[in-house]
Amino acid sequence: MKQLLKASLVSISLALALNATAQGQGGLPAEVIKVGPQSLKNTINSIGSLKANQSVVLAPEMSGRVSIIGFEDGSAVSKGKTLFKLDDSTQKAQLNEARARVKLSNTEYKRIKKLFNQKAASETDLDSASANLSINQAQAQYAEAQLEKLTIKAPFDGMIGLHDISVGDYVNAGQSLVNLVQLDVLKFDFSLPETHLSKVKVGQNIEITTPAFPEKIYTGTVTAIAPAINEQTRSFSVRALIKNESLELRPGLFASVNLEVSKNDEALLVPEQALIPQGQQYFVMTVVDGKVAQTPVTIGQRRKSEVELTSGVKIGDIVIIAGQIKLRPGAPVTPLFPEMLQANNQ
After folding, report:
1. Residues 287-330: tens digit of each pLDDT
2. Are residues 66 and 156 in the same domain?
3. If you count Cβ atoms within 10 Å of the first and of the last residue's Cβ in the chain, which end, N or C, has fewer?
4. For residues 1 and 145, what is the distance between their CA atoms, to the nearest angstrom?
5. Which stretches of 71-204 are assigned E, i.e. beta strand?
6. Are 194 and 70 spatial neighbours (Cβ–Cβ below 8 Å)?
7. Beta carbons of 313 and 268 less than 8 angstroms apart
8. For residues 173 and 149, is the Cβ–Cβ distance under 8 A?
9. Nearest residue to 149 (alpha-carbon basis) of 102, 82, 101
10. C-alpha distance from residue 231 to each of 92, 115, 235, 238, 256 (Å)
């Protein structure tokens, strides 16, 4: 009921304004807005590609026959998880032999040391027993390291790729087995013209969109800026880290980026149609004491169908956004706000 009453009152006001205009009691009607502060981000746009933050192709350091495959293709794995294990029977036997030699040489060293304390053995005998013990201990450590190399574990949390290896296959040292990629965080590399160098800082926020998921926006933070300008393109490279908690994004995807370099919560925006270009200068028409005034303005950023005015108007000014072609500076005008027109149409 209140809305109907408000609409009726606005319609009456509009009708009275138009009637007054027709009878010469007022100025021509013109659609206007009241300038007020709005939040405006200063952004730089570019394009770039997603890359893995960490990526590795797993390969064995030793040759052998595969005895265990501990993952499913395309699955998430945790750091330290066993992915492949090669047959280790020979290495285990070598390790046991090396440990036996350590035990024997340790016993011999203790015996010689006891005799040396009793002056029944020479210092040379003691040094020889000590050296033999150290050699056998080193050989045991080497055998243990060789045994560990037959188990291939995930070096970090990530998504495992696709493999073509089966249990029982013989693989050679250095042979590619499968790739592991970290997906929860991705690198995003893009380039910007050198004119933006002073505006870009580490820690600034970015938003990216990709054709693969056009309705979604992913956020990230600038982590590094290249120290040199490319002499051929006159541009510099920027790297950011993108949060990919849903694991939807993949390395190699193309994406568009908006880099936020500053934010103004007191920006004055008007519709683009309010601008009157004259040569290299822009003007807007305002309503001052019921009359038209033409004011020079300086424009800043553009946002969709709006433009920022950095000088010429202030908060609370009434700016004409339609009907300027019929108006002249100093002429009386009847301002019509958008809500009046909307209510009248309803």
Report:
1. 998 899 999 999 888 877 889 899 999 999 999 998 788 888 88
2. yes
3. N
4. 85
5. 76-77, 82-86, 151-153, 158-160, 170-171, 178-181, 185-193
6. no
7. yes
8. no
9. 82
10. 58, 77, 8, 16, 24
Q: Which pLDDT score, from 0 to 100, does residue 253 have?
A: 95
Number of domains in the chain: 3
What's the token pair of residue 60? Answer: 């064995």
pLDDT tens across 43-77, in order? 889 999 999 999 999 999 999 999 999 999 999 99
Element (H, E) at 164: none
Does residue 17 contact residue 337 with C-beta atoms inside 8 Å?
Answer: no
Residue 98: closest CA among 149, 150, 141: 141
Instruction: Give the structural domain span for 328.
Output: 2-39+265-345
Q: What is the pTM of this model?
A: 0.63
Question: Cβ–Cβ contacts within 10 Å for residue 19, how many?
Answer: 11
Q: Quick check: helix, strand or coil at residue 330?
A: coil
What are residue 219's DSSP bridge partners? Answer: 207
What span, in angstroms and rounded, lies between the C-alpha atoms of 53 and 156?
Answer: 11
Largest CA distance in the chain: 135
In terms of domains, do 209 and 280 share one?
Answer: no
Instruction: Give yes or no: residues 49 and 187 share one domain.
Output: yes
Q: Is 97 helix (H, G, I), strand (E, B) or coil?
A: helix
Q: Kindly state the tokens that stand for 203.
A: 């820690």
pLDDT at 345 over 80: no
Asked if 178 and 164 touch (Cβ cutoff 8 Å), the reply is no
Claim to verify: residue 210 and residue 133 sit in the same structural domain: no
Which CA distances in Å does 241 have to 13, 54, 97, 188, 190? Answer: 56, 12, 50, 6, 12
Are the beta carbons of 317 and 12 closer than 8 angstroms? no
Task: Taking each helix axis as running N to C, give the angle between helix 123-148 and helix 89-117, from 0 to 180 degrees, rounded to the nearest 10.
Answer: 160
Tokens of 274: 């309010």
Residues 134 and 223 in one domain: no
